[in-house]
């Protein structure tokens, strides 16, 4: 390796080296068979990937170039590639529903998350959005994530450290309620962007207004129309933010085969609503835009914000513990196998 290459590698953003070079022990690899079916495995020496059509030794992939074509013991061919972020998010251990890639991409763009930005988010869930936010702010940025449940925090930590090959220098995670903890740990007006994925974001208006800098962007991700309406009306009534914009996105793939080009029969439709608003300067009141009607909420409406009421599936403690163990074991395997590989290389280099 030349001096220029060494300098480039040393100064590369955190986790970038994990995306280059041959496959390594402990790495996740996506295998695609001859029928287009995909499976993700974690490379472990001496083990094999088994299907009803034979087995493929992991050793055949360790050290191979990305994009290799490998063959199992009965001649079945597999295409081997590193999972993209979108693939990783949909296959990683999880305890809560993840923010889909189509929504994460829009949060980054419409929320104007830039390198070096200071961002806070809540809740963390399984860490899918945290990974996208960390990639956007970079090593020189700052992401402070707040999560109420320790099990979710453990799962998120394992997934983040897996994809970045260790702790990310820009990331901090805190257990606790966002509206209380964020004002205790962040200076007023010190945050550039706030991203909330929670049941009742309107309860956090005071906290957001306190820590968000003038001109800063507040992004909300909610699942239902009633949550969307309640949040929008609360933001308007507060007066310290711009008129909120809201939308949803749907992704429909296309079937491409010769002249048989048509939309797929399935699509990724509604996953959640996104809403964006911006913090005004202190002492400024937002524009009083004329509205035809004002939404009213009954006492029953305001007391109905539970996970079950908005359609979230309950996650058992057993499932959460298993997901946390899976996330932690992946990064631990990577670290252990990496150390073993370094030891072998050192012995070989010394000539012993």
Automatic annotation (TrEMBL):
Residues 90-255 form the tRNA (adenine(58)-N(1))-methyltransferase catalytic subunit TRM61 C-terminal domain. It comes from the Bacteria. It holds the Pfam family TrmI-like_N. Residues 1-11, 329-343 have a biased composition (Polar residues). Keywords: Methyltransferase, S-adenosyl-L-methionine, Transferase, tRNA processing. CDD domains: AdoMet_MTases. Gene3D superfamilies: 3.10.330.20, Vaccinia Virus protein VP39. Residues 1-26, 326-352 are annotated as: Disordered. This is tRNA (Adenine-N1)-methyltransferase. It comes from Arthrobacter cryoconiti.
């Amino acid at each position: 390796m030349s001096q220029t290459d060494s300098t480039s590698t040393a100064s590369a953003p955190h986790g970038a080296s994990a995306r280059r070079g041959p496959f390594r022990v402990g790495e996740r690899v996506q295998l695609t068979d001859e029928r287009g079916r995909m499976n993700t495995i974690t490379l472990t020496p001496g083990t094999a990937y088994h299907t009803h059509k034979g087995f493929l030794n992991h050793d055949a992939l360790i050290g191979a170039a990305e994009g290799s074509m490998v063959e199992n013991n009965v001649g079945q061919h597999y295409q081997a590639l590193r999972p993209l972020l979108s693939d990783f998010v949909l296959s990683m251990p999880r305890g809560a529903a993840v923010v889909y890639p189509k929504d994460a991409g829009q949060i980054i763009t419409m929320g104007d998350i830039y390198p070096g930005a200071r961002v806070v988010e809540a809740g963390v869930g399984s860490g899918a959005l945290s990974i996208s936010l960390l990639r956007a702010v970079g090593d020189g940025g700052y992401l402070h994530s707040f999560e109420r449940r320790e099990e979710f925090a453990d799962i998120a930590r394992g997934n983040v450290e897996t994809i970045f090959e260790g702790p990310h220098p820009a990331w901090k995670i805190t257990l606790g309620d966002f509206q209380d903890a964020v004002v205790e740990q962040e200076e007023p007006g010190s945050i550039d962007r706030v991203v909330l994925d929670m049941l009742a974001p309107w309860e956090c208006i005071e906290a957001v207004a306190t820590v968000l800098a003038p001109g800063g962007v507040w992004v909300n991700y909610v699942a239902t129309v009633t949550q969307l309406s309640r949040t929008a009306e609360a933001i308007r009534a507060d007066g310290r933010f711009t008129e909120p914009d809201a939308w949803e996105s749907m992704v429909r793939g296309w079937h491409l085969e010769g002249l048989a080009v048509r939309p797929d029969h399935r699509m990724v439709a509604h996953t959640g609503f996104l809403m964006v608003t911006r913090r005004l300067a202190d002492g400024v009141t937002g524009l009083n835009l004329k509205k035809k009607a004002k939404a009213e909420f009954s006492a029953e409406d305001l007391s109905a914000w539970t996970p079950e009421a908005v359609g979230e599936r309950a996650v058992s403690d057993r499932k959460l513990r298993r997901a946390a163990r899976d996330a932690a074991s992946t990064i631990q395997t990577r670290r252990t196998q990496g150390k073993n590989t370094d030891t072998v290389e050192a012995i070989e280099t010394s000539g012993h």
